[in-house]
Specification:
Layout (H helix, E strand, L loop, with lengths): L1 E5 L5 H14 L6 E5 L5 H8 L6 H9 L5 E5 L9 H8 L4 E6 L4 H4 L3 E4 L8 E4 L4 E5 L12 H11 L11 H11 L22 E2 L30 E2 L46 E2 L23 E6 L13 H4 L6 E4 L1 H7 L6 E6 L2 E9 L7 E5 L13 E6 L34
Parallel strand pairs: 1-2, 3-4, 4-5, 8-9, 11-15, 12-14
Antiparallel strand pairs: 6-7, 7-10, 11-16, 12-15, 13-14, 13-16
Helix pairs in contact: 3-4
Length: 438
């Protein structure tokens, strides 16, 4: 069997319990334990300092003691990491906030200096998956205007400040090599993919497949002269169809195509056998190797619900909990309103039903949310829709008190869709299509 657990609930006891279960099963069966992390490079960030870096509480304490003049935040919204009042307290004790980001967010809005950075699709980098595998990603297209990858901004800032070593960071490969030299656990990341000087029989590797041969017509209405494709100096890839795309390392395969096969079906041509491993091995390199055994975990004690307080548990939605999903209006509409999920026993104690309001008191902060009764929750645990606007002050693992909001006004039923033209909402995007959405 495989035991799957993770860190999304911010509760180490869950990890301990999963370890104990895996250990118990391993006595008689071949058991595997898989621990997931909340974001694509959560493990990679943890490896940067070996888990010994400054935590948020220590950062706040340092700011309050006047030890921080300038705080640099890279591609991160602090208001999604801690309650509003905690972040406000931090930012109120520093002199200058510098933010590097590709999207506007509450943290960037409070910065004195904002530097526009390229998105993941416009830059190259190395991510460490929950498997502990370092994998390279490459830009799909060139960033426009003044946007640069974060590493280039930091390199230029370091050179302006005269910091040692920054004048040598001219390519991303050099940044990766510096990480490998300074951080022992990342010493193998340079093996995740070939460097920018790699060539396939003297040629670069095309990003565009042969099916992109119609690209010359894309701008034909503007000019019949095809503009020169951008030159990529950071990777062994080219922004064109020109090059050689056979016999590649698996980490440099930008697409799968073989004559006579549809794209998805052609994948077998790149495998050792149908359904087998990719030729050349899996992309990336494992930074964490399986050991012969596991450290025995202490089974946590059973959760004991309290009659006077409840444990806050984040509940993640497919739409809305992810930061990027809220940036798209069409997807944000599907996220719904912030809700508080209660066990039927807790709902009966508070004398509330679906649609009622409950006020969550956490320290000096209180927020009132709509109730949704959920039988999957344990009695004494209260779920909140993580990431949905309205839950910013709630903290996973915190203990809060609940009280029925007697002045709560339930939401009115919402019209999702109709074919009645008289019911159209002219202010909404669906008004012209004969379908009304609200």
């Amino acid at each position: 069997p495989i035991i799957v657990s993770g860190t999304s609930l911010m509760n180490s006891a869950i990890i301990d319990a999963s370890t104990a279960v895996a250990e118990a099963l391993s006595a008689e069966k071949n058991t595997m334990l898989s621990l997931s992390v909340p974001e694509c490079n959560s493990l990679g960030v943890a490896m940067l300092d070996g888990g010994e870096g400054m935590g948020f509480d220590a950062l706040i304490a340092s700011a309050e003691q006047g030890e921080i003049d300038t705080l640099v935040v890279m591609e991160n919204d602090l208001y999604r990491r801690a309650p509003v009042e905690v972040v406000d307290r931090l930012l109120g004790n520093i002199k200058q906030l510098v933010v590097l980001d590709s999207l506007d967010n509450p943290t960037l809005s409070k910065s004195q200096i904002a530097l526009p950075v390229a998105t993941f699709a416009e830059s190259e980098g190395t991510l460490v998956s929950s498997e502990g595998r370092a994998q390279r990603h490459y830009s799909v297209f060139v960033a426009e205007d003044d946007r640069l990858p974060s590493w280039q901004w930091l390199s230029e800032l370091g050179q302006v400040m005269g910091l040692p070593g920054f004048d040598q960071l001219q390519h991303f490969d050099q940044v990766e090599q510096a990480c490998a030299q300074d951080i022992p656990v990342l010493s193998d990341i340079t093996a995740a993919a070939p460097d920018h000087q790699f060539r396939n029989r003297g040629l670069k590797i095309p990003r565009q497949p042969a099916r992109y041969s119609g690209r010359t017509a894309v701008l034909a209405n503007v000019s019949v002269h095809e503009p020169m494709q951008p030159v990529d100096e950071e990777t062994p890839l080219s922004f064109s169809m020109e090059g050689l795309s056979v016999g590649l390392p698996s980490s440099l395969m930008s697409s799968s195509w073989s004559p006579g096969w549809n794209s998805n079906q052609s994948i077998q041509k790149f495998q050792d056998e149908a359904g087998g491993a990719i030729k050349g091995g899996s992309a990336g390199v494992r930074l964490i190797s399986p050991g012969d055994g596991m450290t025995p975990g202490a089974a946590p004690s059973a959760f004991q619900p309290s009659q006077s307080a409840s444990l806050l548990v984040p509940v993640y939605r497919v739409f809305g909990s992810d930061e990027l999903s809220l940036q798209s209006p069409a997807i944000a509409e599907l996220s719904g309103e912030a809700q508080l999920l209660l066990h039927p026993g807790d709902a009966a104690r508070l004398q509330v039903a679906d649609g009622d309001g409950v006020t969550v008191a956490l320290g000096d902060t209180g927020v009132t949310l709509e109730v949704l009764i959920d039988t999957s929750l344990a009695n004494g645990c209260v779920g909140f829709t993580a990431g949905i606007p309205g839950t910013e002050s709630l903290v996973a693992g915190a203990v809060a008190t609940l009280q029925k909001a007697n002045d709560w006004q339930p939401r009115k039923p919402q019209l999702i869709a109709t074919d009645n033209p008289n019911a159209r909402n002219p202010q909404h995007r669906g008004a012209q299509s004969g379908v009304s959405y609200v």
